[in-house]
Amino acid sequence: MRNHGTAFGTRHQLVQERVEAMRAIWTQNKAEYHGTFVDFGPMIANPKPVQKPHPPVIIGGAYPYAARRAVQYGDGWYALTGTKYGDEFAFIPKFQEMLASAGRDRAACPITICLYPEELDAFAPDQVGALERYEETGVSRCIVGLNPDKRDAILPSLDRWAGFIRGPGMEIASR
Asked: What is the extent of the structural domain holding 6?
C-alpha cells in the first residue's frame, strides 16, 4: 500500500473519497470534490459513462466491515464467503437488516458471492439446492471460480454450470 501512496490506517476513507469523486466526475458537467485525501476544483471530464446514473460501484470484502461500507456508499456488495469469514446464511440477512436500517432498498445494493472449487465440492451432490438457498437468502449473483485446467477437464465443468444459469433470478458467471 505504501508503494501506492496509501496509508493502511486511512485506506477506507481514501477509497470512499475516490468513489465519491468518481461519481461527481461521472454525473456532473463541471465536477469538483473537496475531501481530506481527494481534492480538486471545478473540472470537465468527458465522455460520461453510458450507464445511468453511473456504473455500479461494488464494494468487496468480509462481513461486517465491507458490508458497512457497501451500505454507506456502494451499489452492491461482493461478500467474501468461506469458513474463515463465517456463515453467509447468517450474515447475509444481517446485511439486509443494515440496508433497511439505513433506509436503503435491497435491490439498490445486490449481493454477489464467489464459490471457489473447494466450496463447490462441499455441495457437489446438490448444487441446484445450494444455489436456490443462496437465492432465497438474497444473493443476486454467484460467480463460480474454477481451477485452471486443460480443455478436456474444464469443459465438462463449464457445461454443468452453464445448465444452472437462469433468467431474471440469480446470475451465474464463471471466471
From this structure: 1-54
